[in-house]
Amino acid sequence: MRALLAIVGLLAASSAEAQTRCITTPEAEAMTLVALPDIIQQTGIICATRLPSSSLIRRTDSQFLGRYQAAADRAWPDARAAIVKLSDPMIDSLLQSEFARPLLTAALAPLLVGRINPADCGTIDRFVTPLAPLPPQNTAAVIVTTLRYFKEQKARGKASAVPDLPLCPEGSR
Q1: Are the CB atoms for 6 and 38 separated by under 8 Å?
Q2: d(Cα 116, Cα 129) in Å, to the nearest integer?
Q3: How far is Cα 168 from Cα 25, in angstroms, rounded to an integer?
Q4: Helix axes 25-46, 63-86, angle to 10 degrees
Q5: Where are the alpha helices (DSSP H) in the chain?
Q6: Cα maximum dimension of the chain
Q7: What are the residue boundaries of the structural domains of the chain, listed by start?
Q8: C-alpha span between 125 and 56 (Å, rounded)
Q9: What is the pLDDT of residues 55-113, one digit of tens each?
């Protein structure tokens, strides 16, 4: 989730105009889906000493991770369009490269996952395990809905440690 936020933050900061743009819930879910395989893999590395080898986030050759990778592949065109929407249209040509997505996610996932406290690995595992049978799109929807909730709480004056995702108001296009 934090990798997604870092991607958005880096790209949105490219211009003052971009900071007034927002992404829809489906666009945010696409961006989340694209980031999730790398986040899952990096989390497994961080939690290797805290979780059993049977933990989903530790099994890099699992069907679980394969489903997330396939979903990320399908979501990339929509995620790429959302990234362009948040940044500068000129970035679209850079994102057309077959190397753009792996470089983007591989560079940012460790930055986000590096914030994981190994003491939290058990909680992360307990969060991921019940989501495993669901389609990856459901997991992305849970993450985006949670981010939207925190954004709304922050707007009401309640502090939030979760960075803002530039989500459009519900129902916007």
Answers
A1: no
A2: 17
A3: 8
A4: 130
A5: 2-12, 25-46, 63-86, 91-95, 100-113, 121-131, 136-155
A6: 47
A7: 2-155
A8: 8
A9: 988 887 778 889 999 999 999 999 888 888 888 777 777 787 777 888 778 776 776 67
Q: Which tokens is 89 given?
A: 């249209």
With tokens 């986040």, the residue in question is 39
Of 169, 166, 173, 170, nearest in space to 5 by CA: 166
22 C-beta neighbours (distance < 10 Å), count: 17
Whose tokens are 């954004």? That residue is 151
Does this model's pTM top 0.85? My answer is no
CA atoms within 13 A on the CB side of 164: 17
Write phi, then psi, for 76 (nearest 5 degrees): -55, -45
